[in-house]
Amino acid sequence: MSEQPERPRRSATATGPGRILIAVYAIFALSATARAAVQIAGKFSEAPVAYLLSGLAGVVYILATIGLAGRKPGYRRLAWAAVVFELVGVLVIGTLTVFDTGDFPDDTVWSVYGRGYGFIPLILPFVGLWWLRHTRARH
Amino acid sequence: MIGALEVVAYVAAAAVALYGVLTTVRNRPPDRTHRIAVGAFEGILLIQAVIAAVRVFGGVSLPEQSTFLIYLLVSVCVMPIGLQFATAEPTRWGGTVIAVAAIGTGVAVWRLHGLWAAGGV
Question: What CATH number is attached to the domain comprising B46?
Fold first, then answer.
C-alpha cells in the first residue's frame, strides 16, 4: 500500500473520537473473552451453546477492536465485517432470548440485547457502523 | 470486600471519569493532572488487589475463585493501558478515553464485590 497524501487521516478510524470507540470495544473484548474463557474452562457441559456464543462474541469484539485501531484498508474491511456480525449477533441472540429463554440457561453478552451490560452491546454496533461510514474516504 | 477501600475506589473512579470528560468538553488534551489522578486511582486498586489476593491465597474460599482472580487482574491492568492509549494521541478525546477506562474499572470492582459477597465472608 502506497501513501496517499491527498487524504491522509481523513479515512482513519483510529483517530479523534474514534479512540473512545476503540476503548469501549477493547473493554468489551476483554470482558467477554475473559468471561467465556472461565465458562468454557470451568463448566462447559452446563450450557455449551451459550458458552460457545460467549466465546464467539469475545472474538468478534477483539476483531472489531483490531479493525478499528488499524489504519490500512484491510483493517477497515475487518472492522466492517466484525461490527456487522456483532449487530446481527446481538439482534438474533437478543430476540431468541427474549422469546425463548429455555435454550439459554446461562447469560451471554448478547442475551436480551445485552441487558446484563447496560444494553451497551446493542448500541455499540450502531455507533460503530456510523463511525465507519462517517470516516470513510470521500471521492 | 474491604468496605471502606471499595467505596474510596468508586469515588476515585467517578472523579477520574468526570475530570476526563471535563477536559474533553474544555478541549484540552490529557496532561499531568490526568497522570496524577490515574496514578492515585491505580494505587488504591493495587492496595485492594494485594489485600484481596492475600486473603484468597490465605484461606478465604470463594465459589468462583478463578473468576475473582481474573477480575482482580483486570481491575489493575485497565487504567495503565487506558492512560497509555489516551496520551498516545494528545487530543481532547484522550480525557474521555481515560473516563471509559475508569468506568470499566469501576464495573470490574463492582463485579469483584459480587463475587466476594457470594463467598459469604
Answer: 1.20.120
Total domain count for chain B? 1
**Residue in the block written with cell 465472608:** B121
Q: What is the pLDDT of residues B11-22, one digit of tens each?
A: 999 999 999 999
Shortest CA distance from A16: residue in chain B = B93
Question: Where in chain A are the domains?
Answer: 13-134
A124 residue type, one letter: L
Burial of A67 (0-12, 13-18, 19+ CB in 10 A): buried
Structural domain including B48 reads 3-118
Distance between CA atoms of residues A6 and A14, nearest Å? 18
- pTM comes to 0.90
> What ipTM does the predicted assembly reach?
0.92
- Closest CA of chain A from B116, distance in Å: 17
